[in-house]
Known about the structure:
alpha/beta, CATH 2.40.240.20, Alpha/beta knot, 12 strands, cytoplasm, S-adenosyl-L-methionine
Amino acid sequence: MPRFYCPEPLAVGATVALPEAVAHHVNVLRMQPGDTLSLFDGNGGEYVARLATVDRRRASATVESHDAREVELPYHVTLAQALPEGSKMDWIIEKAVELGVAAIQPLAAKRCVVKLSPERAGKKLEHWQGVIESASEQSGRNRLAKLEELTDFERWIGARDMGDCILLTPRATQSLAEWTHATAPQPISLMIGPEGGYTQQEEDAAIERGAIALSMGPRILRTETAALAAMAAIGAAWGGM
């Protein structure tokens, strides 16, 4: 059954106008009035609906039933990802959503090659929100990961309690695997550096404020690999995979 995100609050018995992008997919799939589809509004659970009307640019559906199923991780993970080059952020966000991340915090660090003006940052955030929605549709998630505003690294660590933050760094003497097996599941924020990693000054500042320095083992992972490997390792230790 085709599955789509519909931001309008859904309720059994209601007939809703589907977003333009969903109407486009309905047309691409050559769906007809009377066909069934699955909808979710990001607030939990999902709905079985039946197409009521379809034309070239618009479509509507009548909601028939609600399933309260949940597929979220039993603990909250925020991905604090320093901006990588090119389209790597799209891939990171897509896969992190598939793995169950609850929030994504883009960070501007000193070694970030990408420098975004406020206007470009706004457009990027809009694009990344679309990536989150598409990845949620594909992966069966019924709640959308929260996308935070792009923030400077120093401002971000200075405005929060860093006790729940895991700084992944090859300088660490303890591995993420060791830490997760010795620690009960809890809310965490994974801090991933850009190409070249965080500077020593950035790492020292985060650790001084309470961040936990952990490594991913003896090999150096690329920025687009580190977060996803960490999410998988945490899921294997804490459950939810």
